Structures are given as structure tokens and as C-alpha cells.
Model the fold of this input.
Amino acid sequence: MRSVHIGFGLFSPQLKGFGHSYRLQYYGIADGNEECAYLAHPLLNAWLREITNVILHHSVKEVKEVMGSRIDALKFCYSMTLFDAVCPNNIF
Done:
């Protein structure tokens, strides 16, 4: 089965300190308050839940294969860990 690359970085928040790119420093989340605000936003929350659902139920069980690269898989896992820390058992 062919893997499907999903541009998770387009709508998945990361902490500003997670990387060094301009985009991450500009658009990244500063703290738990911003994460809660992201989850409170109806459209962003819906996107996050949709992509999480797609990845959790994808026929390919390796996140790396679904995401298309090891880096994107790490970003996804890291992002999910952060959201779970702020709102336990809310996304998965």
C-alpha cells in the first residue's frame, strides 16, 4: 500500500522552541495557554481531531509511513504529547 503524505505542519501547532525555522518561531505555540486557545477554536480543533482520527485509523500502522517522513512523524507525536499534557484524554 502506498503511504499518504499529510502536510501536518500546516495545521499542527508546535512549541516555538522545538525548531529553528522562521515559520515555527513566528507561528509556534508559546505555552499551554496558547494550546488551550487552539483547542477552544472551533475550526482548529476540528482540523486537529480530523487528522488525528485519520492517522489513528489509517490502515498503515506506522506513523512514519502515514506522515511520509520520520521528522513529520516525530512532530505529530510531539504535538499529540503536548495536547495530551494540557487536556488529558481529550484528543485521542
